[in-house]
Amino acid sequence: MAGKRKRVLLLFMLIGAVVGFLAVSGKKVFFEHGNIMAAAAGEDKVLATAGSSQDFKYGMDILGPAWQWVFPRTFIKRRFDNDQLNRVLNYRLNYDKLNDMYYGSAKAGVALNRLAIRPSFLKFPKRIYAPEWYWQDVDAAVNLSLAYNIEPVGYIFGSFCRDVAHVFSGCMEGTDKAAPPSDEWKTILRAVFRRYSSPGNEKIIYYEIWNEPDLDSYFLPNQPQTAKANEYLRLFKDAVEVRNEVNPNIKLLFGSLSDVYAVDFLREVFRNPQGKNLFNKAWALSAHAYGQHQGKMALIRNVLNDYDADQKPIWLTELNDTYNYNPGRSDDEPIIISPEWLRDLFTNLEQNYNVTKFFWFRAVDSQWGPGLFSKSGRGDAAVYYQNGFFYNSYKIAVNQNVYSGQKLDWRNYISEVSIGDANGNGRAFDRGDVICAIIKYLGLKNRRFVFRDQTKVFLYDTDVNYRFDRQDVINFIAWYLNSPSSASGGACLPLGAS
Questions:
Q1: N or C terminus of the chain: which is more exposed, having fewer CB within 10 Å?
Q2: Same domain, yes or no, for 292 and 209?
Q3: Are the C-beta atoms of residues 135 and 427 closer than 8 Å to each other?
Q4: What sections of 217-286 are H helices per DSSP?
């Protein structure tokens, strides 16, 4: 009995944060097929669904390709000695700051949100994390985006972390650029598509496949463009097959090409016997440009002409003016981009090169150029404040869909515990679910709930005091869903009963 209790205590050293959060919010969030519904009084509304891209042109890569890694997180509890793993697994997203970012973006007229979905943050090695699939962060980013009528456009790149050693060797940070094998890649695509794009649950319609596959920074380092293009075509072919299986209405964007080797990469694509056929299955070609925008779009159009390929619309999914505004600029010198310059750029690219969607990179000032916000501080203490120079220029230039509502209560749209499986299925759990599940797991006969300071849960039996926090809940629920026949303890008593 003592050994069992010791194992239980070790297993459940971590629940108070999630249950405390649920106790504070007093809300239960349901994730249903179709739309997200907030059960909180005063916000009983169905969120926007995907598909408004047909109506709006202008968006942003709001959080950048590393948002799941670098965005401020709230400290939960230290579980590992290695800080690298701690930064990801033991911190939840700082949802109030995420909410601030979306609210400010919506007020500036941002209508499209390019959102990175990285497998290394969706599925962890079983030795270090349970459940096997973790949807919580991407759920939060998607749900809040839709709540502000900003349509998310997903881009999927990267592979799973194979084991603990792989995590520490850079899988989380994206420094592992290998192309995943088809069975793994299809598993990734199938899970993401089913969760966010299944018929009747189309929160995301548009997906880019990979990110800048022409660069060593993201794909097959030290390999020639021929090898990169051939492997990319394999990944895109897999995406087409999974798209057709899950929901043929999903729209795939081909390329996500940088403005460095895009032309060389595209030529190698069309030299592949399957290249033109696969390219023609895409909804649009996506590319990036950080200066000399018209010239770069002209070069891409020339390649498509040379190979008699479909003259698809181009989506500029990363756009800034780094070359003109970044070199030689001191850190405290404001970057000024006028609304007239922006509007002229958008108009020229649309009319002359059929660029139909524009995503500024990114909402936060960076080495790539100005954003809607400037950042003060680092890590969890980071504060984002409006960049008046560029914020106003962007808002005037895009002149679209400016959000006029109040800042939303993020707790109505976020599930603190959201787990699932490879089919994209998942459910949210409220405080009562969690306590009931723990009781059944422990098989306690004499149970009593005591809430203290709204941050911890103490559960007593006749002679042992158990304390739980958030990670215990997540670990337990994963076990419970996989082994329901192992649960014991019978029906749960109402909260507060003894």
A1: N
A2: yes
A3: no
A4: 225-246, 262-271, 275-279
DSSP string, 433-468: HHHHHHHHHHT-SS-EEEEETTTEEEEE-SS-EEEE
- Residue linked to tokens 């056929």: 277
Token pair for 122? 């969706």
Predicted TM-score (pTM) of the model is 0.75
- Structural domain contains residue 492: no
Q: 156, 195 in Cβ contact below 8 A?
A: no
Residue 49 lies in a domain: no
List the domain range (segments joined by +) for residue 448.
2-28+430-486
Instruction: List the single range of 53-57, 123-127, 340-344 with lowest mean pLDDT.
Output: 123-127
pLDDT beyond 70 at 311: yes
| Mean pLDDT taken over the chain | 74
Nearest Cα neighbor of 52 from 146, 162, 183 is 146
CA separation for the pair 230, 274 (Å, rounded): 9
Given this model, what pLDDT does residue 23 score? 31
For 348-388, how does the pLDDT look when each residue is reduced to its tens digit (9 = 90+)? 999 999 999 999 999 998 888 889 999 888 777 788 999 88
Residue with token string 């590393």:
66
Q: How far apart are CA 118 and CA 134, in angstroms?
A: 11
Q: How far is CA 430 from CA 30, 139, 414, 466, in A?
A: 9, 16, 12, 19
